[in-house]
Amino acid sequence: MILVSHIRQFVFCPRILYFYTFCDIKPVYPEYVSSGSQYHNKQNELFKNRKFIKFKLPIIKAYSNLYLQDSSMQGVADLVLECQNEIIVAEFKNQNKPILNKGTKMQLIAYSKLASKHFNKPFFKIMLICSNNLKFKIFDINSDDLAQFNSTIDKINKMLNQELFPQSCASIAACMQCEFKNYCDDRE
Predict the structure, then answer these.
(1) Is there a domain that residue 91 lies in?
(2) Could you say which protein family the record assigns here (predicted)?
(3) What three-state secondary structure class fits 178?
(4) Residue 18 lies in a domain
(5) In a domain, 92, yes or no
(6) Cβ atoms within 10 Å, residue 3
(7) Alpha-carbon distance 149 to 106, whole Å?
């Protein structure tokens, strides 16, 4: 079963998922991981009193840290907004502007697929929320995004089934922030 958080990591660099899955290594996490955890904890505390009115969406109910699972994936979504005719999954990011990268998009599509099954409602959008005053941006999901997601899942399953050490597509800058950089022979 694929952890949804591993989808984002796989897009960043497929070797991260390989190291987590097949190697008995205790990674040393960069400092930003700790600050991100603190940010998420604060958002969870603030969630109790939020109404999300500024989103201007027909929200029926908001769910924080919702565990979602099907036969192939599992994970905990930061925020799921159940609206009248759709669900919208949101991710809290400890950044100044809601900038969506490919890994986060794939992660949010995975949560959206799981939430869609859970609530029996379609999804058409995903959302990034950043800063404590809920700066946000809603992104539409199209058929190309879904095809890219399916391709990513196929690549993950192929790597997991074949247990082959994957090529790295990461940049040197990405490698410098990786928790497994000391175990990967491609960078100095």
Answers:
(1) yes
(2) Belongs to the CRISPR-associated exonuclease Cas4 family.
(3) coil
(4) no
(5) yes
(6) 16
(7) 6
Whichever domain contains 53, its CATH number is 3.40.1350
Token readout for 106 is: 């794939």
Which amino acid is present at 71?
S
Q: Give the Cα separation of 181 and 110 in Å (integer).
A: 27
Q: In this predicted model, what pLDDT tens digit does every residue of 119-131 receive, in sequence order?
A: 999 999 999 988 7
Distance CA 182, CA 121 (A): 44
Q: Looking at the 3D structure of the chain, how many domains does it have?
A: 1
Q: Residue 53: helix, strand or coil by DSSP?
A: helix
Q: 187 in helix, strand or coil?
A: coil
Residues 178 and 28: their CA atoms lie apart, in Å, by 9
The pTM of this model reads 0.89
Nearest residue to 134 via CA among 73, 87, 173, 81: 81
Place of tokens 């604060």: 42
User: What's the pLDDT tens digit per position in 84-110?
Assistant: 999 999 998 888 888 899 999 999 999
Q: Which domain holds residue 58?
A: 36-164
Residue 156 domain flag: yes
Tokens read off for 89: 């999954």
Structure-token pair, residue 31: 């400092």
Task: Quote the CA–CA distance of 177 and 186 in Å, as a whole number.
Answer: 14
Token pair recorded at residue 108? 């949010």
Query: Strand (E) positions, the chain?
Result: 2-3, 59-69, 73-83, 87-93, 125-130, 135-140
DSSP run (H or E) holding 35: helix 31-47
